[in-house]
Amino acid sequence: MSEARGEPGSGTGAGARFFCTAGRGLERFLMREVRARLAATEVEYISGKVFFTTCSDLNMLKKLKSAERLFLLIKKQFPLISSVSKGKLFNEMQRLINEDPGSWLNAISIWKNLLELDAKKEKLSQRDDNQVKRKVGENEIIIAKKLKIEQMQKIEENRDCQLEKQIEEETLEQRDVTTKSENFQEEFQNDIEKAIDTHNQKDLTFRVSCRCSGTIRKAFTAQELGKVIGIAIMKHFGWKADLRNPKLEIFIHLNDVYSVVGIPVFRVPLASRAYIKTAGLRSTIAWAMASLADIKAGAFVLDPMCGLGTILLEAAKEWPDVYYVGADVSDSQLLGTWDNLKAAGLEDKIELLKVSVIARCVLWPMLYTARFMKLPGCPFGKSEGNVESDGNCHCLQKVLILLFLTFHLGKSLS
Amino acid sequence: MRLLTHNFLKCNEENCTGGYPLQIKLDDTSSENVKILEQDFNKEFVKNVLSKVDYDVLYNTAKQFGISLLFSYTSQHLEDEGFLNSIHHALFKIHIMEGSLICPQCHVSFPIKDGTLIYIYIYIYIYIYIYF
């Protein structure tokens, strides 16, 4: 478990403060998930972002399923007023950076701690995992790579780029699935190298990604603002800017409601999953939909229009002891699903059928007001349900499904 | 297609009543029409599934594949690993690759090609509750 150092500006005691970006409508799912999976406290959300405090390590953070990207929070404050002159605005932004260097350095040290802890665990577990899971040939390549990486950690920064190219070449020769999961691991390893290599704070290279929306966007471009911030950081902390391959990336989002500064924890967004080969529906939405079905162990779950099977894949990873059946009318989609299942190793859990779907609507008058039904914030209402229904009906949700279905089925049934 | 799926399928032609269970007819012309694939055995899962399947249908179908299950079982058998293993084998491990399912009433056939069943219609019933 990682801990935050007790420096001024951390403000949260035993945990670190993070925030996640999430698609509109998925914030409620993300809040629920963060409380359940990471035992997070001080959870709050603004449109598109969820802020929380947790002590979890990188492994648990990697498992978040409804978030797009994860960041360490440096600063969150009131929005910058864009109606003033340029000079005043730039001063405001410089104040953002200069005001509280403690919080910057604190966040960077937390980030390094997280990555170092993860590196140690990876080394320990992968030596065992490799022998059990993978075949001998790939085993050797992986061990050789790991040795190379360990050697590289002792050599200067310049050689890092070359190593990455070598690793990329090698991974191209391997199979798709292992390539993808290894690429993610390479990204993590590269992050770790870079974190460990910065013994001296002055060696840190950085890049600023600035996003603007709302009124500030009309007045200034994101590039302008990014430049101003970059210069202010260089002056204040003495780091160098590197646009191609920075060690540290700083993410700033300015809009009418807030100004947020953070460090992305992973280079790869959480929404791209290692186990989904070809994505159909966005993985975060697929997970959110699967979570709405309230799947319990021993249930049967049918997805009558599964497409590439994204919802079933997400569900099968999260709730494994369940019998899943996927169905689709199109052969090519079913072939795609089969490929995806093989790539994820889940062919024994999910059965595929080729079907055409007819929806019949039954109007059922209820003569008494039943319990209060919460309307889920799920943006798409695709039909999906348990074969063994338990009589619980989310009325408004089903109405949305009906509306969507009449539209969807009218188009695709031939 | 597994026998577990077969247990839940009935003929969905209009005006066909009693089209359950569908008869399995294996395709003798192809070389590998039944495959046995390994699957991890999960005791609780098998017990859960067993409570939901129609056991007589399962018994008859398994007989067709040369697997003799117990004719009926009691709650004592639910604790017996051997019994659960045989159920697991029958339900999950047998995959029908080539063949067809034929309705006993109207004789409509649903082909199984390359392990995937082509089943003409699935009906989804959407219940809209109106609150007064």
What does this 3D model show about the protein?
The complex is a heterodimer of chains A (414) and B (132). Chain A has helices at 27-38, 58-62, 86-98, 101-133, 136-152, 158-173, 176-197, 215-219, 222-237, 283-292, 310-318, 331-344, 395-412; strands at 16-21, 41-46, 49-54, 69-77, 205-212, 240-241, 248-254, 259-264, 300-303, 323-328, 350-366, 385-386. By secondary structure, chain A is of the alpha/beta class. An eight-stranded mixed sheet of chain A has the order 2-3-1-4-8-7-5-6. In chain A, strand 2 (41-46) and strand 3 (49-54) form a beta hairpin. In chain A, helix 4 (101-133) packs antiparallel against helix 7 (176-197), helix 6 packs antiparallel against helix 7 (176-197) and helix 10 crosses helix 11 (310-318). The radius of gyration of chain A is 24 Å and the shape is globular. The model of chain A is unreliable at 1-13, 169-177, 367-396 and 407-414 (pLDDT under 50). Chain B has a four-stranded antiparallel sheet, with no helix packed on it. A two-stranded antiparallel sheet of chain B has the order 2-3. The longest helix of chain B is centred in the middle third of the chain and has 13 residues, at 81-93. In chain B, helix 2 packs across helix 4 (81-93). Chain B is of the alpha+beta class and 132 residues long. The N and C termini of chain B lie far apart (45 Å). Chain B is 28% helix and 27% strand. Chain B is globular. Chain B has helices at residues 3-6, 43-52, 55-64, 81-93; strands at residues 23-26, 34-36, 94-96, 99-102, 109-113, 116-131. The chains are: A alpha/beta (414), B alpha+beta (132). Strand 11 of chain A pairs parallel with strand 6 of chain B, so a sheet runs across the interface. Chain B: InterPro entries: Trm112, Trm112-like. Chain B: This is Multifunctional methyltransferase subunit TRM112-like protein.
